[in-house]
Amino acid sequence: MDAQLEAELDNARECLLDTFDMALTYGDTDSQEAQTFLNLVTRMCEIKYDAIRNAKAAEAAKEARTLAEFEDNYKRALEEQAEFFDAKKTKEYKNFVARFKQMEKEHSASADAASSSNANDDMMIEGEICIKDPLTKMTMQNPVKNRKCGHRYEKSSIMNHIEGKNQPCPVAGCPNKQFITKKDLVDDILFKIQIQKIAEQED
């Protein structure tokens, strides 16, 4: 599959997650409808599958000497690849759903944070929302989010942590074992606002 298309699909999934994050924070019930987002990511998985099939068919037909022969070979190659495709079994869909559910838990916990009297210093609502940097154990001031796993860190500490070194996510138990790169990290403005609100409630 074309590398540019794959990169654009990856970016589109990230945009969907960011949009859902904003909908949970600022939107109404309709904008928070989960199935709408899941339908969109399902379609993205189907687009990737179709692109791979088309690329394989084009490769199989490239030796044709005439346009008619190319079309016949291309069509035959597509038919040979025909099979039932379930987007929900793809790693892209599963990863999206995992991060999707994590967002729902975090926002649900955040909504209840003001009325909870049992939140400890490190976690809010039984550990659902961590407002402390996993490296320094200090409350984050400028949080960044790892695009690959959704975990958050204090920007300065994670940048120092990965500088010149191959480091995976420092959150204990994180299933993402890939090394963190600077391009994986994005400023999390909405979470920063949440942290500020929690701090105001504690004052």
Distance between the termini: 53 Å
Q: Which overall shape is indicated by the principal axes computed on the Cα atoms? A: elongated
CA-atom Rg in angstroms: 22 Å
Run of helices and strands: HHHHEEEEHEH
> Are there runs of 5+ residues with pLDDT below 50, and where?
113-127
The largest sheet, given as strand count, sense and whether it forms a barrel, is:
3 strands, antiparallel
Q: If strands are numbered along the chain, what order do they take across the biggest sheet?
A: 4-3-5
Count of discrete domains: 2
Q: Percent of residues in helical segments?
A: 55-70%
Question: Briefly, what is this?
Answer:
One of its GO terms (molecular function) is zinc ion binding. This protein has 203 residues and is mainly alpha-helical.
Characterise the protein shown here:
This protein has helices at residues 3-26, 34-61, 67-81, 91-113, 155-162, 189-202, and strands at 123-124, 129-130, 143-146, 152-154, 185-187. With 203 residues, the chain is mainly α. It has two domains: 3-111, no CATH class; 143-202, Herpes Virus-1, CATH 3.30.40. A three-stranded antiparallel β-sheet has the order 4-3-5. Strands 1-2 form a two-stranded antiparallel sheet. Strand 1 (123-124) and strand 2 (129-130) form a beta hairpin. The longest helix is centred in the first third of the chain and has 28 residues, at 34-61. It is elongated, with a radius of gyration of 22 Å. The N and C termini lie far apart (53 Å).
